[in-house]
Amino acid sequence: MRTYEVRTYGCQMNVHDSERLRGLLEDAGYVRAPEGDEADVVVFNTCAVRENADNKLYGNLGHLAPVKARKPGMQIAVGGCLAQKDKASIVRKAPWVDVVFGTHNIGSLPVLLERARIAEESQVEILESLEVFPSTLPTRRESAYSAWVSVSVGCNNTCTFCIVPALRGREKDRRPGDVLAEVETLVAEGVLEVTLLGQNVNSYGVEFGDRYAFSKLLRACGEIDGLERVRFTSPHPRDFTADVIEAMAETPNVMPSLHMPLQSGSDRVLKAMRRSYRQDRYLKIIEDVRAAMPDAAITTDIIVGFPGETEEDFQGTLDVVRQARFAGAFTFQYSKRPGTPAESMEDQVPRDVVQERYERLVALQDDVAWDENKLTVGRSLEVLIAEGEGRKDAATHRLSGRAADNRLVHFAIPEGVEKPRPGDMATVEVTYAAPHHLVADVFGAVRRTRAGDAWERAQDAPSSPSGVMLGMPTLGAKPMEPAVGGCQVG
Ligand code: SF4
User: Fold this and answer.
1) From start to end of 57-205, where are the E strands?
2) Does residue 472 surpass a pLDDT of 50?
3) Was 81 annotated as part of a binding site?
4) pTM listed for this prediction
């Protein structure tokens, strides 16, 4: 039996695509390589958004060349956004790569591996557009209790800092019936939280001519028995309509959290970014969300130092941060991305200026988030217990999980209480707030769930999921990895 390993870089869309790649490989008879073993097939699911993504890929491929030379039959495949961008040049630069496949044909991977093996030569297959919606492919999910469900792929916007439309193509919407059927199947398997995934969920339905399709989808998720938590990412302020806010507020299992990219608080910069909303529109959506859901936690993405950004523009961003009261933000320092319109814009902001603004933004956002988090002290929360997330606090044996509003919560289980499993729910009271997490040391109760049962079953299964909770990562500054991500999905 041949073993495989999938290495994933980039956003949630890639994380989810990797679940499909694992499903495809297991369907074709491969088994997951045990941790630390050299796999027979190594698949790189790449990202073209992160800074130096290509250097990192070729560095990693270089490390594998001697491994492959001494391991007969080993195969290396490269897929994802960088493969879509660089195509055959990958095998020119790294001729020991066996397969290159793009974002539109992940389903071809097993066939391409087989073809490369028989023909004893590299196979490169890149399609220019999507033929089959990838969510019809088998999926090997990483979490037994929380799942991504694609509602669309691609994006019809043309944000000038973003490479996603060039690499993922125009938006393709999945039929609501197919989305709901997948959610129902997941719930039957024990999943209790789903995150609906699309580059721009608010334009969902544009392909089949229903501008209310996304709010209808949220309400339909509300009808699914056993589905306790529904989230979505990413929304786009341009397409955000009142019916979505109403559906969020009126559907009990749609969680009171919203991650809505701001990118800049300056109208002038938003125009240069080709983001067709303005500061007042963004703030109005937040006002409406807060009016409908007073306890909603709102988070965002912000880019600092976009070409031409002046101090006055930057002050506009700080103003929005103060007014919007974000519970968290992914903050990015702008840097050029090959192939994007912004790459050749004049007035690139000097690095030291970007760095200094970035530090001011992070300091302000941390203060705001901390103040917002302090408002939760004394509140009772139900936390979905996660594994592999957040701080491991050996001294207090704290566990971690996510509240309904997606805040990260660390909490202690008193002695004598049976240890809950990932996927179970705990009711706790918040005793302390930090800028990026809460501590809840007053314990209420544990609710054992079907999701916890599913997690336990998965531990015994061969090639079991790692149990890693693939929820939204801890929000906060990312000073070590300057990147321009666009939407969190992109
Ligand atoms: S940033 Fe988001 S909305 Fe803009 S082009 Fe990229 S994926 Fe589309």
Assistant:
1) 75-80, 99-101, 123-125, 146-150, 152-153, 172-173, 193-197
2) no
3) yes
4) 0.88
